[in-house]
Amino acid sequence: MSRLTIYFTSDTHGYLYNTTFADTLPKPVGMLGMEFPKDGNTLIVDGGDTIQGSPLTYFLHEKHRRQIMADVMNGKGYDYITLGNHDFNYGPGWLSEFLNGLEAVCLCANVEDLTGTLPIRKWEIRTMANGLRIGLFGIVTHWVNVWEKKENLKTLRITPPVPAAHEAVRALQEAGCDKIIGIYHGGMEKDLKTGERLTETDENEACRLCEELPIDLLLTGHQHIPFAGKMWHGTHLVQTPCYGKSYVRVEMDDEGNFSSQLFTPSAEQTWTEEETAVRADLESWLDSPVGHLSRDLWPGDRLQMALHGSEIADFFNRVQLWATGADVSCTALPNECRGFSRNVTVRDVVASYIYPNTLCVLKITGKDMREALERCATYFTVDAQGGIRISESFLKPKEEHYNYDFFAGIKYAFDLSRPCGSRVIRIERNGQPVNDGDEMTLCMCDYRATGAGQFPMWKACRHEKDVLTEISELILQYFAEHAMIDIPPLSTMETYLGTRRL
Fold first, then answer.
1. In the chain, how many domains are there?
2. Euclidean distance between CA atoms 412 and 375, whole angstroms
3. Residue 284 covered by a domain
4. Which one of 256, 331, 377, 467 is CB 3.0 to 4.6 Å from 423, fit for a cystine?
5. If pLDDT is split at 50, 70 and 90, which confidence band does 495 have?
6. CA-CA distance, 204 to 188, in Å (whole number)?
7. Using one digit for the tens of pLDDT, what is the confidence trace for 250-294?
8. What residues does 339 pair with on adjacent strands?
9. Tens digits of per-residue pLDDT, 20-73?
10. Contact at 8 Å (CB) between 327 and 414?
11. Is residue 136 part of a domain?
12. What's the confidence (pLDDT) of residue 500?
């Protein structure tokens, strides 16, 4: 019999129901299909990114509906949560509504609410029914400060997580806890098999936490890499995937050793009256018609889209140029993108552009453009047989297809036989070569404008203007103003392997 059982979820992004939102068929996803049998020696914990990131959360926010995420978590018996970077996306009011509706305790040692109104604690000691004293603390990646809109953080101070974790663990040790558990909305910066460092940034610092602190169990998130039963420097590690695809059960035996396992939610769900009503209203809204295309726009193979262009990305860029009047536009596709049927519905839009991004217009040079395209060209690698593959750096430690950008307003060519850093062989705009000193305006999402995704050149560029309407809403507006939208053929990029066009 276990002395302690912990159920852990993270990065659910509002995936409560048994749907991926692409259709209405029941899927084995969603918090409402998870089972957490509970007694006095059980804790239920969430690692953040809960209240943004799905058509459901978009629907609730845009239609000014009451959140139900806290209700669901209360019904499941959650004890503790921490905050994820996306929990700040809709501003302090939306976050406050969620936290004040929760019965669970929010632990986040490196987030300070300057108003003193949000129920956030740094750590807590929980005495279980069998007498075990469990110390828990929470932390979130401080890269929130890089990505988030400044107005959403005006009343918050977010500090680096490692010093905050040191303070929390020291306090829990002095209190004489039997076990110390960290809830970290962040992931691994090293390969857990080889120890090889995977990134030079401090966005993810789980390995450092394990190396510097006597944490018995670290519940991690943010990277969306599902694993259980891993160890690093004596700390037991777990992580869930995103979108409620699975959850983790951790058990501690009489000797104090941890074991853990991933579980898949049931596709069968039972809903309350309110959950039933919200789901019905959501589906009705998702199936609302918004416009028409000359043909379907379905996503293709990731590699082929990167090599030859993407019609969906072209369409996103078309909307961005329409909304901003910029000379050039860039956009990326999420890891999971539904695509558009010819007769477009709201479902097509919000399940294809899933982020709450707004738009920035930057004044850039041809040199900036070349550097950004060289970064995009690192998406490809060439094997010994001359085959083109997606670079491991975009696949591990997590898939980052959303960091490959597609451009409109220029034509460009890559030669993949060349080493990274010298693959861009042509950039043209209006039929003329783009030189390093040429200036132009470029629109992109606010996330990319921070330099995120290893595009540091954008952070240094001058801001011309912002369009603060969310891009998904701009897409809906574009359909409202264009009764029939013609989809032209792709023509912006070429890719070569030596002299052979791919």
1. 2
2. 13
3. no
4. 377
5. confident
6. 6
7. 999 999 999 999 999 999 999 999 999 999 999 999 999 999 999
8. none
9. 988 889 999 999 999 999 999 999 999 999 999 888 998 999 898 989 999 999
10. no
11. yes
12. 63
The closest alpha carbon to 172, from 123, 233, 130, belongs to 123
Amino acid identity at 486: D
Does 264 share its domain with 340?
Answer: no
Mean per-residue pLDDT, 305-313 = 94
Q: Which residue has the tokens 């240094």?
A: 460
Beta bridge mates, 241: none
Q: Phi, psi at residue 17, to the nearest 5°?
A: -90, 170
Residue that the structure tokens 């993108």 belong to: 337
Helix (H) or strand (E) holding 448: helix 446-449
Structure tokens at 122: 């740094």
Largest CA distance in the chain: 75
Residues 6+ apart with CB under 8 A from 1: none
153: DSSP letter: G
Residue 330 has pLDDT above 90, yes or no: yes
Question: Is 379 within 8 Å of 307 (Cβ atoms)?
Answer: no
CATH of the domain at 15: 3.60.21.10
Q: How many CB atoms lie within 10 A of CB 287?
A: 11
Same domain (yes/no): 112, 202: yes
Two tokens, residue 372 = 């950004």
Whether residues 423 and 446 share a domain: the answer is yes
* pLDDT (tens digit per residue) in 367-401: 999 999 999 999 999 998 989 999 999 998 889 99
59 occurs within a structural domain:
yes
Cα–Cα distance measured from residue 181 to residue 133, given in angstroms and rounded to the nearest whole number: 11
Q: How many degrees, rounded to 5, is the angle at CA 207 between CA 202 and CA 209? A: 85
DSSP per position, 1-41: --SEEEEEE---TT--SS--SSSSS--S-SGGG------TT
> By residue range, what is the domain housing residue 195?
4-279
Two tokens, residue 500: 């052979």
Helix (H) or strand (E) holding 381: strand 380-382
Do residues 374 and 399 share a domain? yes
Reading the block at residue 121, the tokens are 């604690």
